[in-house]
Specification:
This is MarR family transcriptional regulator. The structure is a single chain. With 165 residues, this protein is mainly alpha-helical. The protein folds into 2 domains: 46 residues; 111 residues, Winged helix-like DNA-binding domain superfamily/Winged helix DNA-binding domain (Arc Repressor Mutant, subunit A), CATH 1.10.10.10. The protein is built from 7 helices and 3 strands; from the N terminus they run αααβααββαα. The two termini are 35 Å apart.
Length: 165
Amino acid sequence: MEDEVDRLVAAWRRERPDLDVEPLEVLSRVSRLARHLDRARRTAFAEHGLEPWEFDVLTALRRAGDPYQLSPGQLLTQTLVTSGTMTNRIDRLTTKGLVVRLPDPDDRRGVLVRLTDAGRDKADQALAGLLAHEREILARLAPAQRGELASLLRQLVIPFDRAGG
C-alpha cells in the first residue's frame, strides 16, 4: 500500500539522489498524522462547544484533582502560553461560567483559578468525546502495535521534554 509520503520520498530520491531522505519516511508521516489528529481534536472539542485552548485550561484544572484549582502560574506552566494570554483565557472562561477566580489563602496578592461544576462537566464530556475520536484513529493498529508505537514515540519525545521544549 502506498501513501502520499511514499510518493513524496520517491520524487525526492529521483530529483536529489545525492540526499538521504529517509527521515522523511517517518517524520513526514508524523507531521501528516499530527494535522489529522489536530482536525479530529478540533471536531471533538467543537462537539462540546469548546476551542482547543479552552479544553487545555479546563483539563489542566480537572487533572489537578479536587478542588480543581491552580494558580495562573501553574496554568502557564501546563499550557505553555504567556501571562497575558493566560489572563485573557481565564477572563473568557470566567465569563462563560466555567471557572472562577478566588483569593489565594497563602498569598494576599495571588489568585487561584477553580473549575466550576459546569466547567468540570464540560471538561469530562469533552475528554470522553476526544478519546472516542482518538480510539477510532488508533483502531487501525493492534493493541501490541499501539504499545510499540507509544514506546517508540516516547523515545523521540523525551529529549524535547527534558529540554523544556
